[in-house]
Amino acid sequence: MIRKVGFVWLAIMLTAALLLSACGNSKEVNSTPTNSAGVKDGDGSSPKPSELPPYEINLVFYGPAQKDLDLVAEEMSKITKEKINATVKLVRIEPAAWDQQSILMLTSKEQVDLIVTGGSSYSRQVAQGQLLPLDDLLQEHGQDIIKAFQPEVLAASKVNGQTYAVPSIRDFASDPIVLMRTDLLEKYNLSLDNVKKLDDLDAIFKVIKENEPNINVLGKASAAASIGNRLLETQWDILGDYIGVLPNLDELKVVNLYETPEYADMLKTIRRWYLAGYIHKDAATSNETAVDYIKANVGFATISKGKPGAVAQTENRTETKLSSVSLGHQITSTTNITSIMLGIPTNSKDPARTMMFLNLLNSDPDLVNLINWGIEGKHYAKVSESSIDFPPGVDSTNSGFNLRQGWMFGNQLLSYTWATDIPELWKEMEVFNRESKKSAALGFTYNPIPVKTELAAISNVTRQYSMALETGTLDPEVNLPKFIAALKDAGIDKVIAEKQKQLDEWAKNK
Predict the structure, then answer these.
(1) Strand, helix or coil at 115?
(2) Tens of pLDDT along the chain (510 residues)?
(3) Is the dihedral of CA 422, 424, 426, 428 positive or negative?
């Protein structure tokens, strides 16, 4: 989560939490609706496809326009018609219009069978009774989904003990990595073998700066992120908003991130880099990223979120060969898992059939590859049994289907890898996810309403200090104490106490 975006998210979450607090008084949603075959979901019936009447499943998602979207839906329908006697309609919405359009669709009586959800949208939709509870449906028609997940990962989406959406299977974990230009490492005979911690980068950065004075040695991972942002979110459970975090993933002890020795040490290192000229002087306010710098041949390194394939993907963006080194073990928190999920709205006319379709998106490679890559021979061609590329004469500029949003739909690990990715990407991703360190708070989401006034004041203080401190622009010796004092005046201790209280209650009842 990017810090700047995080506090916009927090404001939305306050609204969602208000709705959640009223859920107990709202009209109860029927968790066993009747499907088009006249069978109540969860009653143990598993009719054969030939016994089911025809049905069209509307899958609603956001993404760029695709000329051949309907052709892909037709090919997907050939599979789903045979297996569950249903056809598929892909309903695409422009990303910029997603929030407004999805809200309108869910509040109307328009048929929506499966919709992309996650983050604050998920909380809001559950609070407003727009998503069906899925636990019974998963038991009846989602056995392949259950098999594909580690139980604690699938359970991370539960709200008040019930599942309302299924996460897509993708990169659930991340570790902090440093990406550096391979050509400059080789030019100055620099090895990454001895880089084990943040301070070990000084020796490399020093050589680059002395010999390449026009290079921006270290850039931000994204326009809205600080230099330290990726370090924080890949080593701590930030519990959604950084205001009260878990430094030890084995303990449910919430602390003030900004008072920890680790945070102070990170700021000292970043300040040292800033004063040495490794970080651009306007890093706190500029929208320029390390990718921009490296692609323009005026950048060297960035601190990023690591996962299998991260290096190759950044190489494609920068058009530059990169080397990487990890600074820690990968972790998984609730935020990692619940950011992208698929839910079945109450607008669905056949939740059981929709769950059958969602089950196929997590178990049928042919269906997964269609929605991820399009039609073989038209939108992609195999270069090996598991790797694909554009067919002759086709590229990203003229392909009729180049969505590249496999992380959004079901089990991405069942799909082909692209030619520029490592061949064993999905096998490595599965191991990476399973071997990640899971937070003891996996599945916990707190209600910010009791401290909404304090959070608003804290947000203002954080905007004033965090970016400047975490890019080295402000001296932490002088300004970190001011930052902490201002946070306390804004009520951060009260927020942390409330989050701890809710976390303890969650732990008792999980």
Answers:
(1) strand
(2) 334 444 444 444 444 444 444 444 333 333 344 454 444 444 445 678 878 999 999 999 999 999 999 999 999 999 999 999 999 999 999 999 999 999 999 999 899 999 999 977 888 898 889 999 999 999 999 999 999 998 989 999 998 889 999 999 999 999 999 999 999 999 999 999 999 999 999 999 999 999 999 999 999 998 888 999 999 989 999 988 899 999 999 999 999 999 999 999 999 999 999 999 999 999 999 999 999 999 999 999 999 999 999 999 899 889 999 999 999 999 999 988 998 999 999 999 999 999 999 999 999 999 999 999 999 999 999 999 999 999 999 999 999 999 999 999 999 999 999 998 988 999 999 999 999 999 999 988 877 888 989 999 999 999 999 999 999 999 999 999 999 999 999 999 999 999 999 999 999 987
(3) negative
Counting Cβ atoms within 10 Å, is residue 392 exposed (0-12), middle (13-18) or buried (19+)? Answer: exposed
* Backbone phi and psi for residue 3, each to the nearest 5 degrees, phi listed first: -55, -50
Structure tokens at 247: 């430094």
Burial class (CB in 10 A: 0-12, 13-18, 19+), 427: middle
Q: What is the DSSP letter of 414?
A: G
The burial of 74, by beta-carbon neighbours within 10 Å (0-12 exposed, 13-18 middle, 19 or more buried), is given as middle
Bridge pairing between strands 216-219 and 299-306: parallel
* Angle subtended by helix axes 98-107 and 119-127, to nearest 10: 20
Q: Hey, is 120 helix, strand or coil? A: helix
Residue 107 main-chain phi, psi, to 5 deg: -90, -15
C-beta of residue 180 within 8 angstroms of C-beta of residue 315: no
Non-local CB neighbours of 307 within 8 Å, separated by 6+ positions: 171, 173, 174, 175, 330, 429, 432
